[in-house]
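Quick question: what would this complex look like in 3D?
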Amino acid sequence: MRYQWHFQVILDNLPVLIAGIQLTVAVSALSMAIAIVAGMAVALARLSSHRALRWAAYAYTEFFRDTPLLMQVIWVFYALPLLTGINLSRFAAGTLAVSSNLTAFLAEIYRAGITSVSRGQEEAALAIGMRRSQVYRRIILPQAVTRVIPPLGSMWVSLFKDTSILSVIAVAELMYKARLVAVDTFRPLEIYTAVAVIYYLLAYPQSLGVNYLYGRFRVRE
Amino acid sequence: MAEPILRVESLHKFFGRLHVLRGVDLTIERGEVLVIVGPSGSGKSTFLRCLNRLEEPSAGQIYFESRDILARGADLAQVRRRIGMVFQHFNLFPHMTALGNVMEGPRTVLGMARRDAATLGMDLLGKVGLEEKAHVRPAELSGGQQQRVAIARALAMNPAIMLFDEVTSALDPELVESVLQVMRRLAEEGMTMIVVTHEIGFARSVGDRVAVFDQGLAIELGPPDVIFRNPAHERTRRFLRQLLREEAAP
């Protein structure tokens, strides 16, 4: 007995899937935008001379890195409203959970980048009379950030797919939509195959884009 | 007599339990070139790095232009503007061009207008013979060229004194002379300099005074003629013999 593939269902349900893609892109882009900034703040806090700040950043990072994203998503959507009385939309809760998680990972990447800049760079900058904030802004961070473009890029590409986890709280992204269509049409194999292809087609150009960026901004030493 | 530009009194430095500087006293007059020699591990680099507090001294006093720079409220960034430093490994900023490196201090620290900083930068690159390399990144320069850019970068802050920390030690032998030449010219122009080096020829011809460091102390201090011809300490003699042997060897 051979399975009959009916890829026609994909075309029939294309508008639904496209709506899902749009939301996937929106959640990913928004989360990345938040985490790019927040991750840097957490990284700087980790490297700060204030003990309390350092500890808070450390605790934050370890909490979000060492617990499953799935649990964080569920927790933000169901438990946070109970504790704080703040009701977030599915989209907002999903974005909050994903961006908080991503922030922790990006903070570690940034931190690795910052500490990889040699001590001599800092000394040279201090020796011409720069203040610490200037040393960071002008000398250390520009070098650190260009060095971490590849790992940042791979976080971005995997984030893109990780947002599929938000289907558990019914955020209407690609995976959620796919499941609806699959249930609707009794054609899960076709739908999920198509979804894999869609994720691939969306992610691959971004990988290329990241490589291009790195080649462009890489600093030779 | 005028107040010396820099006065160091019983400077001590510990790294953990290691006593690296054990009470160094030195004064440097304006326009003077002081050369510091000594075996590796004698504390000469650490001494130099204490002068702009890249290393934090453990005890002692440092007066720079009559100001106590170890005082609690001392504005370090302010002090460092006036003290130029050149490092063994150049430490140029790799993400900036040669000109960018030289302009960085005036632009960021002094808030100089871009155009003025560029003019100053080109002047200084000319002075170290690298005008044509202005728009090149450090990675494309030879070690000698990088070091000369580093000297220009330090000079751009118009410092009152320049510190040279074994600036030719990391260079290929054939590139050393180009850097020494720049330093020699600076000395002739009257720049106050402290030079930690193994280049005895340079010490002899350019140094006004030579200090010999050994085991965290300045064991000998005087004009190069005296130090190199007729040293008072046996340890100095041993060190000089060692150095001459190295120079004689290929």
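Answer marked as accepted. Chain A is about 80% helix and 0% strand.
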